[in-house]
């Protein structure tokens, strides 16, 4: 079951003047799901998109460059052997957005520096969307001061009460009284992983109201 995060998605998609969209929150807040929805929406409006899920091996700059080369191919449809991926990205004329997910696993200065170089050289119509658990060392203060940064944090990623209701409806979990559901939403603080775990646990409890009364982080 997937809820369309329309409000926060549209906030990101409309921030075309920002060089970097930073989607930062702890695990379980739906960063990847939101980014995928943004990507789909942008593609539907004619904006070129490419996606790279970072893993630990990408701390090797040569490996990271290979991933970026594949992203370039996804964006312009052409494979140019020997071409520099950064130069190719920064020379693009059509609007594009490059998504880098799970960025927190990058720790080597050279790999992070490569991404910082892309940010500094991005053409006017280019944009990076980074999903991460931690604040990356990408000169955020400078980007923030220039108005080149949009930050989407855990507070923005929390599910509103209507979104939480929609999620439970999609999972066919609609038996809780309205006041009890409000209490569950308050106890999870809109954390989607908590709502998901609660929906699973409710399958094993006949008295949903009593379960919500006991539900906590330790549950």
List the helices and strands and how they pair.
Elements (H helix, E strand, L loop, with lengths): L5 H8 L6 E5 L6 H14 L3 E6 L7 H16 L8 H6 L5 E6 L7 H13 L4 E7 L7 H7 L2 E4 L1 H4 L3 H10 L7 H11 L3 H11 L5 H7 L5
Parallel strand pairs: 1-4, 1-5, 2-3, 3-4
Gist of the model:
The protein is α/β, with parallel strands linked by helices.
Written overview of the protein:
The protein is of the alpha/beta class and 219 residues long. Helix content is 49%, strand content 13%. The protein has 11 helices and 5 strands, in the order αβαβααβαβαβααααα. It has helices at 6-13, 31-44, 61-76, 85-90, 109-121, 140-146, 154-157, 161-170, 178-188, 192-202, 208-214, and strands spanning 20-24, 48-53, 96-101, 126-132, 149-152. The protein has a 5-stranded parallel beta sheet, with helices on both faces. Strand 3 (96-101), helix 5 and strand 4 (126-132) form a beta-alpha-beta unit. Helix 1 crosses helix 2. It is elongated, with a radius of gyration of 20 Å. The mean pLDDT is 90.
